[in-house]
Automatic annotation (TrEMBL):
Keywords: Cytoplasm, Metal-binding, Zinc, Zinc-finger
Main location: cytoplasm
Segments forming domain B30.2/SPRY: 234-430
Cellular localization per UniProt: Cytoplasm
Organism of provenance: Paramormyrops kingsleyae
Name by which UniProt lists this protein: Tripartite motif containing 105
Classification via SUPFAM superfamilies: Concanavalin A-like lectins/glucanases, RING/U-box
Domain of life (superkingdom): Eukaryota
Organismal lineage: Eukaryota, Metazoa, Chordata, Craniata, Vertebrata
GO molecular function annotation: zinc ion binding
Family: Belongs to the TRIM/RBCC family.
Amino acid sequence: MSCGATNASQERLSLKEDLTCAICCDLFVDPVMLACMHHFCKACISTYWRSLRDPVTCPQCRQEFPTKQFQTNYLVAAMVEKVRARSADHQHLQKRLKDCLASHRLTKERYMGMIHKNEQKVLKIKRTGAELQGQIRSDFQALHCLLQEEEASTSEHLRREQEEILGELGRHLATLQGGLVEVEEKMHILQQTMDAMEQRYLLETPEVNFRLSVEVDQGPGIDISSFGAKYKGPLQYIVWRKMFKLLNPGPAPLTFDEETAHPSLCLCREKTSVVECDKMVAHKPSRKRFVQCINILGSQGFQSGRHYWEVGVGNKTKWDVGVALETVDRGVRVKLCPENGYWTLRLRNKTQYSAGTQPWTRLSLTSAPRIIGVFLDFKDRRVSFYNADTMLMLCSFNNGPNQKAFPFFSTCLSDQGRKPQPIRLVHFPLEPL
Ligand SMILES: [Zn+2]
Ligand SMILES: [Zn+2]
């Protein structure tokens, strides 16, 4: 097949050579034949002969002719036209083939690029999945360990308490049994003495030992109803409180940093509650203080590790809650977005929740959260928000801070005529009194 194709193309090539003018080296145009049977373009041979002085010759075989004579060869002309037309077809096809090949090459590169990207994604997802599986295992392991240890030690305490009481009761029982034997023996002797006295008149009064050698006391004052009282309480809650302290990260007991508070904000409840007040408070100028927006930071900053805290927003109709870089300019009014050093969740008009991106990313929540959980992870550069009542995640940023950042809050200006509502830091489960 390929051999046949090669032959055909070779034939085409030699035909093309045969139909090529030796003067212009191109396919004949108006081919003419000389007496020597050689062919040239009409124009080529005319020009050639014009350039010559005598004699008139064939430029190919040098044969001399008496006059400038040639003959139009219609057969060769028709063949030349055929070859020319076919050659144009070929060129067209070749161009199409070339274009198509180039376009397919691009498609191939695009597909290969996509395959590579997909493979990378698969690898990344598998790696992340494996890491998360490990983390889930270790997080649960820590809780299981605590529960197992607590269960074992509680059981052991109960067992020892029981053993101790049973030991005491056992010892008392043994003493009582010894006492019982002695009492019975003594009773027997006394009875015998009494019988003897009744049967015959005794000359001498017998000597009688009335006393018992051991007087057995009441024994340990054990109140059976109080046995195991410790284990009859809210056992699960007692253990859960211990577990709570182990949580990593568990809710951090934050306070507000008064030095950062906008002059319209007042703190109360041991700096765990902030509310907009009627009058502005006069402060010394400080670069730490927000002076344009009604904002405040938490007093504890973070720059590594994983942290979680809860913020009570109650029924407030607007607020911003999240994280801000230590370096944010407190003297200017800026849009709250990661590019400006803020990662926030916001509420406006009672029901409009958004993630603090530019433009805002609107969130459709099925219920209004009263307590917002904020999670900050430096390793993963993640800031996530939760409805702390249900622990449903509301939104999450994966371009979180990579330098020191603080918990951030804005009470927002309350609407005219409405009583300002506070934002509170929730110290769960130990609410400050
Ligand atoms: Zn020519
Ligand atoms: Zn010739």
